[in-house]
Amino acid sequence: MSQFSTVQVPRAETIAIQVTAPNQVKLSGTITQKDPASDLAGFFKALHTAALADKLAEVRADVSGLTFVNSSAIRLFVDWATWVKNERGQRYTLRFVTSRNVTWQKTSFMALLSLAKEVLAIEHVT
Amino acid sequence: MSSYDRNPSTPSSSSRLAVAGVAGSAQRPGDGAVLSGRTLLRVICTSGSGVLEYTHAFINAYTADHLRGAVAQRLSVGAYELLSNALNFGSISSDIVIELIESDSMVGVRVSNDAIAARISMLTEHLLKLKTNAEQTFLEELRRSVTGGIPRPMLGLARVTHEVGLTLDLQVNERRISVTAQCRR
Q: Residue B132 and residue A68: Cα distance in Å, rounded?
């Protein structure tokens, strides 16, 4: 049974989160709370742990519907990429699905790619 | 909240630093000038739970309704990060003022607050780094987000200049500082 798809989704006021087997998580809305880590850091870590347990080759994180995030939220994506990068054993590719129409996503994810290119992939949708 | 035909809060510039954004369109004459014009909205904030979120939500809705989509998105990031900085690092004994200002060719968001000298010095230094190389500073702050560091990572202003390509302008008048993030309309 997929551990990934059974990860508990946190309740957050401004974000809609959907986890789909075998390897996709979709986030939409906005992340504006001062400390989004309290809602999301544990969730991302659980997805990471489950992806390793499921021996996934790739996790698709679709953020194309995230129209605004604050810099604290960007740090959460950096953290996730770093966890994958630091895995010594089997690891997966973390693929961020981004939108060309959302200004903040264009630069942030390209910068993130430059920090962890060996484990990240960026896919653009309109 | 109230509107004014003129911006009443622009301080006399005892010192000023302008940092140009690099993303988006190239700089044109006038892009780095102090933004003065019509104040579309002015919100006076005091520290408190949720003030950042609901003030940003209001400004976001306002800009989305009044400005082109791409410009509204850029100013949304600017408004959030400038207000967040003011709430995190400004003096809690005085009001924080956030304004949306437009001139014939430019539009911007300005946040004014009181700050201690050490904070003003740190902010000035950070803006100089951004002025020198916004992209490099953005990457450095992203890296510091991973490793932590003292002082704490300052990703917000790097986003404003590099990620959404707004021009930053700092004006200091004794303890009162005003940071403006602007772009072409």
A: 27
Residues in chain B within 8 Å Cβ distance of A83: none
Give the residue extent of every domain in chain B. Answer: 15-184
ipTM higher than the 0.85 cut: no
- Choosing among A71, A82, A104, which should be mutated to test the B contact, i.e. which has the most B CBs within 10 A? A71
* Cα of A5 to nearest chain B Cα, Å: 27
CATH architecture of B15-184: 2-Layer Sandwich (3.30)
Stated pTM of the model: 0.84
In angstroms, the separation between the Cα of residue B77 and the nearest Cα of chain A is 8
A32 and B81 within 8 Å at the Cβ level: the answer is no
Nearest partner of A31 among B135, B92, B60, judged by Cα: B60
Q: Which residue of A32, A102, A111 is in closest CB contact with B80?
A: A32
Residue environment code for A73-103, b if the CB has 16+ CB neighbours within 10 A, otherwise e = bbbbbbbbbbbbbeeeeebbebbbbbbeebb
Q: What is the pLDDT of residues B112-166, one digit of tens each?
A: 999 999 999 999 999 999 999 999 999 998 888 776 666 666 899 999 999 999 9
**CB atoms closer than 10 angstroms to residue B141:** 26
Structural domain containing residue A21: 4-125
Structure-block tokens of residue B86: 């003011």
